[in-house]
Amino acid sequence: MDGLETEIDDMCYQSQGYKRARPVNFKRGVNMQDLAEGVDFEVPDNPEEGFIPDNEHASEELEKGEPFFDDEEMFRNLSFGSIGRPGEDEILTLPPFEKVAHDMESLTTDKKVLKKVLRQGVGEVVPEGALCKVHYNGYIENQDVPFDSSRLRRRPQSFRLGRCEVITGWDIGLKTMRKDEIAKFLISHEYAFGKMGCPPRIPPKATLLFEIELISWVDNAAADEYSKLTSEEKRGKTFQEMLQVVHGEREMGNEHFMSHHYAKASRCYNTAVRLLEGVMLKDEEEETAWKADLVRLKLNQALVSLRQTHSRVALRYCGEVLEYDPKNVKAFYRSGQAYKQLGEFDKAKENYLIALKAAPKNLVIRREIEDLNRVVTDHKARERKICKKMFHNEKSQCTTPCVISLRDLKVPEDFITELRISLRDFAEDDFRYETNLPSTLSEEECLAAKLVAEEMDLLVTLPDFNRRYSARINKREKPPSELDYY
To answer: Lowest-confidence range among 123-137, 197-211, 275-289, 449-463?
Structure first.
């Protein structure tokens, strides 16, 4: 009879379109795969029978009254993640910074410097004393606008880690970051600006939220260790050990240069050159490496000098490079840039053409020559325009430079007198080799300054029509070596 009932039940399930197994009696265990497909359960006719295990060992435990589950195993598999934590409804009622702190990890034992990674970085973590370049936004609680932001300034912030150049919370947080990482830091006042704050922007006892992106970092540990050595220990350093120190200084200089801190970059390059020039070499291989590094550093010095408009200093560095490498393209190119700054356009073009001959496919050099030609054309057109104005001949088609004297210019005598005194002081000053005229001078005043300067055998560069640079006056003689450091 039981077999007949089972067969009838099977037919009923098939006719109703069931694709899963027959109902499972609560007396038997359940296969998890059947649960995924769907299982029907039925209550036993006699519920008092209870659950009957499938294995004999479990049956014996139940008969003895022993627990079926092991306490330690059961507690080990339970999840206590939500115990002691606020629920979602409670989080919504918390103050803003407490909501932010909910899913952040603590970097200190007192839990007053918290961190959350927003984008993973690459490479190693930042070491102590490294030069870091970061972008950041800083917020005070209940304020949507940052109280400080390098992104709004559109310039990254650079600093040495562990040198008290930033707040303590930053020193702690940056040590856990990697290059290209973005992270949020919630910093209590003890690790920020203290009880007093920094009025009026930062109130007393203010907890601050920072979003920091680590753009890059440079480790200068070798240079720091070298600076702590005695004179005898420094003399005992090998060439390879000194190269590590030199490379660290050069990398620091590169970081400063990219951040437009040209004075700091210049000091790093000068330090690296001084260290490299004091190294003792033992073979030709070391001498080759020594020359390559020295040329690289002096080219960097020339580039920094150009950015600071120290044109004569840049020319000297380029000349030193050409002594070691007479065909160096960068040295000729930067010499051309220096002569262009000085207004010596013929010499500038001469150096550009030498560089282009050595590197005929270099588009940068070609564009620089084209720009030089435009500057020369503008310069000549400007002189012709001034000539026409002075002689009231707007229809004049003169194509050659006019001979102009101070009497032809409509410039006050007081201006000429003050100009002569100023330029005479400049010519007699042994520590100045370049000066800029005010950008507010008129065209005739600039031309008067040129005539007075030429009387004193000074070089003058007049501004172009677009005022891309102000008028400059330089001395002709080469500056002495004592003025290398600035």
So the answer is: 449-463
In a 10 Å sphere around its CB, with 0-12 CB exposed, 13-18 middle and 19+ buried, how is residue 473 labelled? buried
Q: Are strands 122-125 and 131-140 parallel, antiparallel or unpaired?
A: unpaired
Pair 213, 135: CB distance under 8 Å: yes
- Cα 275 to the center of its chain, rounded Å: 27
pTM: 0.55
Q: Write the DSSP symbol of residue 26.
A: T
- For 130-154, the three-class secondary structure string (H helix, E strand, C coil) is CEEEEEEEEEECCCCCCCEEHHHHC
Do 133 and 122 meet the contact criterion of CB atoms below 8 Å apart? Answer: no
405 phi and psi angles, rounded to 5 deg: -120, 170
Mind listing the pLDDT tens digit for each residue in 122-145?
A: 989 998 888 889 999 999 988 888
Distance of alpha carbon 35 from alpha carbon 45, whole angstroms = 23
CA 269 to centroid of chain Cα atoms: 19
The Cα 406–Cα 256 span in angstroms is: 45
> ∠ at Cα 350 (345, 353), nearest 5°?
120
Residue 302 CB coordination number (10 Å): 27
With beta carbons less than 8 A apart as the criterion, state whether 248 and 239 touch. no
Q: CB–CB of 250/282 below 8 Å? A: no
**Side chain identity at residue 88, one-letter code:** E
Query: What is the SS3 assignment for 467?
Result: coil
What gap in Å lies between CA 453 and CA 475, rounded to an integer? 10
